[in-house]
Design a protein that fits this description.
It holds the Pfam family HerA_C. This is ATP-binding protein. One of its GO terms (molecular function) is ATP binding. Keywords: ATP-binding, DNA-binding, Helicase, Hydrolase, Isomerase, Nucleotide-binding. By secondary structure, the chain is an alpha+beta fold. It has 3 domains: 152 residues, no CATH class; 179 residues, Rossmann fold, CATH 3.40.50; 89 residues, no CATH class. It is built from 21 helices and 22 strands. An 11-stranded mixed sheet has the order 9-8-22-21-20-10-19-18-11-17-14. Strands 1-2-5-4-3-7 form a 6-stranded antiparallel barrel. A two-stranded antiparallel ribbon has the order 12-13. A hairpin with a 2-residue loop joins strand 12 and strand 13. The longest helix has 19 residues. The protein starts with a helix and ends with a helix. The structure holds adenosine-5'-triphosphate (ATP) and magnesium ion. Magnesium ion binds next to helix 7.
Length: 581
Amino acid sequence: MDFPLLIVGLSRNFRKIIMRAGGCMLDKAGSTDKPAANNGATVSRVGVLMDVTGDQFTARLDSPKEAATSTDEDKTLGQVGSYFTVRQSGWNTLVMVDRSYRVADKQGRAAHMVHLTPLGEISDKGEFTRGISHYPISGAELHRLVDGSLAKIFSDYGDQDFKVGHLTSFDDIGVHLDASAFFGRHAAILGQSGSGKSWTVTSLIQSAVKSMPNSHIILLDMHGEYGDKEVDGLVAKSPFPADKVRCFRAEELEFPYWLLAFSELTELVINSDDENASIQISFLRSCMTRLRQEANDHLNIGHITVDSPLYYSMEDLIKAVKAANRETSDFGKKKSPLYGKFDEVLVRLQSLLNDNRYDFLMRPKTRTSTESLPGLMADLVGIGDKKASITVLDLSAVPFDVVPLVAAQIGRLCYEFNFWNPHCREFPLFLICEEAHEYIPREDIPRFREARRSMERISKNGRKYGVGLCVVSQRPHDVSETVLAQCSSFICLRISNPDDQEYVRAMVPDAARGTFAALTSLSKGEAVALGEAVPMPVRFKIDLPDPPPNSTDIDYADKWRDGGSTVDVEKLVNNWHKQER
Ligand SMILES: Nc1ncnc2c1ncn2[C@@H]1O[C@H](COP(=O)(O)OP(=O)(O)OP(=O)(O)O)[C@@H](O)[C@H]1O
Ligand SMILES: [Mg+2]
């Protein structure tokens, strides 16, 4: 597997790259200066294993004198993040350097030691498999990687055309993701504010729809970064191809109240601290089941429960609650046990109905019958009137107190879509939750319970029905542990908060400590990918999205220097009144 002659023709630039990456790739970059007299095994040897445990090896690197080559590149040999192989009795184990340090040997000479994380095995044909089936023993030789093997590992592993970036140390080695692992087994994109998450999401989706034109991606856009919009003559275009994307604002798509699960509705209209809460809940339960039955008699649906996704009229519900609240017997002399128990419920219902921000929920215009549900489901997954691979749901104008409810519904609808779809395996979906910490929190807070439950359900069972979930968050520490623990791929951008780092470190699978420790030193748009979608933990530069989302950093210096545009405050206040942005 050695190619001494090939190397002679390497360009100067390429050799520079090789040197930058320490022991990462080529055997003989230095051997062009010296005759390669030895056989390949000796030339590529760089050290020997001293200690082997289940998850870490320690090796002593040969001193420059012992080493067959001693060039400038040897000075950077063993850099943290570089790769080697351990060879023993026909087995090649791929390892990555986690730590590099020096100790004094018995003669007082400095010995260069490295801690190595085993990543997988490389066959004679250069094929990589994750995990270690044959552990080497101490005394095994440490070698540089054979020419091109790293590029082969990355291009063989993922889907050829689902390229998302390139290695930080090798511009020409592309990083490809395994699409089935990434989309089907849940993913997380984590990083502090401004680290490049939205750009990463955009770049990933752009690459996905290019290589997989029949994808079905649903994107919860909390800040209006991914959709088309026009306010005040300012036009912002979606970063996705116009023929592939469909953008909805919540008020266009409408998530009607009658789709809320019973627990979601009670959360909205019942104060759990109210002493009458349990009476209110049991009355609403029977009342809603009855209303649902009455309104859908003509559909001949056999079994109707309080949670069935069936239309009922809000007016009728309010009428029934009002009647119960005023119920008397004995010609008005005796108050019924329900009398006056619903004052607070009625006030809450009325205030929701009066506030036009909640119209998409409380006063739907188009979704006013059970028959309108298929239309909503089809639009949601991109097979409605206009077909789309990406459905962007712009929730930026949704009042913050109902965001969790809307997110819960979207999560539930996506799950139910494929749960009841006999051909779910032919129609896999992927739901991306931007700013997940805002509605899938770690703590059990009543207001977020339903959103959390619906996303946790996808993360636990979605794989079986072809519903994938991606959580995007700047505060991983605040995101549900269950959801993160089920993610099998992680793209971690810069994270400097120690709490977040610690939390993510505990979550990620086979985290190579060396790669992971780089989290604080990542630059913008640079990430560490871990988990099943990549062959091994890898630090890489994400391809720039083209075009980028509407989340570009504001150039303060430029705007403050030159004054920027004038502001129409009246218009601004008007927008606020109309809730338009
Ligand atoms: N791959 C990249 N290469 C170069 N610059 C980038 C890259 N990705 C992002 N940036 C820069 O970082 C800025 C912020 O990116 P982005 O909006 O994606 O951050 P974010 O992590 O989503 O932040 P927030 O958590 O606040 O939403 C962008 O305006 C862009 O200038
Ligand atoms: Mg963002």
